[in-house]
Amino acid sequence: xxxxxxxxxxxxxxxxxxxxxxxxxxxxxxxxxxxxxxxxxxxxxxxxxxxxxxxxxxxxxxxxxxxxxxxxxxxxxxxxxxxxxxxxxxxxxxxxxxxxxxxxxxxxxxxxxxxxxxxxxxxxxxxxxxxxxxxxxxxxxxxxxxxxxxxxxxxxxxxxxxxxxxxxxxxxxxxxxxxxxxxxxxxxxxxxxxxxxxxxxxxxxxxxxxxxxxxxxxxxxxxxxxxxxxxxxxxxxxxxxxxxxxxxxxxxxxxxxxxxxxxxxxxxxxxxxxxxxxxxxxxxxxxxxxxxxxxxxxxxxxxxxxxxxxxxxxxxxxxxxxxxxxxxxxxxxxxxxxxxxxxxxxxxxxxxxxxxxxxxxxxxxxxxxxxxxxxxxxxxxxxxxxxxxxxxxxxxxxxxxxxxxxxxxxxxxxxxxxxxxxxxxxxxxxxxxxxxxxxxxxxxxxxxxxxxxxxxxxxxxxxxxxxxxxxxxxxxxxxxxxxxxxxxxxxxxxxxxxxxxxxxxxxxxxxxxxxxxxxxxxxxxxxxxxxxxxxxxxxxxxxxxxxxxxxxxxxxxxxxxxxxxxxxxxxxxxxxxxxxxxxxxxxxxxxxxxxxxxxxxxxxxxxxxxxxxxxxxxxxxxxxxxxxxxxx
Length: 632
Ligand code: PRX
Hints:
Elements: H1 15-23, H2 25-33, E1 44-49, E2 52-57, E3 60-61, H3 63-69, E4 76-81, E5 87-91, H4 92-108, E6 116-120, H5 125-137, E7 140-143, H6 150-160, E8 164-168, E9 171-173, E10 176-178, H7 180-187, E11 196-200, E12 213-215, H8 216-221, E13 232-233, E14 239-243, E15 251-255, H9 258-272, E16 279-282, H10 289-301, E17 305-309, H11 320-328, E18 332-335, H12 337-346, H13 349-352, E19 361-365, H14 371-381, E20 388-391, E21 427-430, E22 443-447, E23 457-458, H15 462-470, E24 477-485, E25 491-496, E26 500-503, E27 506-509, H16 510-518, E28 523-533, E29 537-546, H17 554-567, E30 576-579, H18 593-600, H19 614-631
Parallel strand pairs: 4-17, 6-7, 6-8, 8-11, 11-12, 16-17, 16-18, 18-19, 19-20, 29-30
Antiparallel strand pairs: 1-2, 3-13, 4-5, 9-10, 14-15, 15-23, 21-22, 22-24, 24-25, 26-27, 28-29
The structure holds adenosine-5'-monophosphate-propyl ester.
């Protein structure tokens, strides 16, 4: 692949780290782990009973201790801004004191090591306090993005059997108040195992307090602020984070403590070249993995000061993000290609009217970044001074796996390429049979050795864990992504090779969408695929077969869309719905998704000899043609 390169770096040149990693990756990760605080040292650095790993076996540590107790208590941890303009500054000392109080409150409500606690909060500092309070006592937190619906919350709380839910009366999003407490009430109405709901006051709305409910203020303020951090086994689960896959409902990705902290702290330092004076700002919501690893844990473990913003970055207008950067003198910005595409469309004059000279490093995550968007980021935002790190990773990998690392080394950057794997991580691009493909050839990305941030398993489903990630290429982790390695060894991450969509960087399974669509009483079959979208990267298109005798109307369309919003959440809203009389299927009755994908991407549809009914293809093709006309 031909590409321009940009020789901008921060002058760091530490070749020793890479050399150490390639000579013995286990010893290398041990060395990184030693930079954390351990109450007791480990005996075995890695126990690898493929595909199950345990890092730093015998070692005792605690995530909240590493994030708070070891830091300078006077230093600002969070510069918080609410969507409505509220502002707060929270020091490490204040965060520690609140965390201890909440941890005591959780203990007094009967939460013990290993119990699950669901957190459904807006982006407020108390979300970080909640996470760290769980970590402090060894409770496993499971954060749910505050844009998910009651039905989605119910599924997750049911699966994790959380005893406590921490929520707020409401949260602000685009000027609206999302009634979080009311949504939680609906979600847990038949879940008797939920013992208590702790409710933070944020939005000043009227709520009904039930028997199970406690006010955050009462729970926290009435609890003592001394609480020793629990000395936890390195492999003690830290959190469950639900994410969509190719089949069924979202699965609970389970992460450990010691391995995860090692991976996050090392990558945070290498990627962001963090200095004591930096002001870091990651725009991700903590409901997603980026927010877990690089808002909640990474910056705190490294003692950084960060900006945390509650609302949409373009609310109340397209200047909000740049205003925040100017106000807090942000030095490091980590955001998504979707956000960048949106801001690029608003035009250069908006960012150009702000002082962005504090910026020194820019990052992106979550989806492929188009080279022209990369260049815009580099030129208009970074003024050709700031390296851009395109970081590839997944909920399952815990932390970054492929990225330029300006904190470690200076390399020529290629717009749209994630460059190289981080030290200690071994990836390959392979064909169907598992053989490495030639340079500049598309293949599947796999990971060949265990890494410290890797998931422990899927919550309660070891068999699924083995099947999803370790069965396609036995012994190797299958990422589900397409990639290309170019002649210089640079990796280009091309997006999902499986039935998972990335809409505005959010991961949505087609199977989950389809089962929501067919649960409508008028729909008999559904097939969903993604089409390219100028801003969101991908948009959802649904093909629906109505039941016999059902009249196809706009009302039906709206009903079906509403159903998806209620069952999954607004992020899963289909952009277009097409009613067809049949779906292209194989003779054995399986929907030929390969064909839908190919048509959506304008690719050749290939061999269709196993297709049962050719007429279905032409019907879908007509729908795509219509769509393309609409999109111009
Ligand atoms: O397809 C890849 C894409 O996001 C997927 C993982 O999604 P999720 O678990 O939600 O985590 C997102 C945040 C880490 C991957 O399988 N992806 C992530 N980062 C990139 C990317 N695709 C291209 N370039 C990236 N930098």
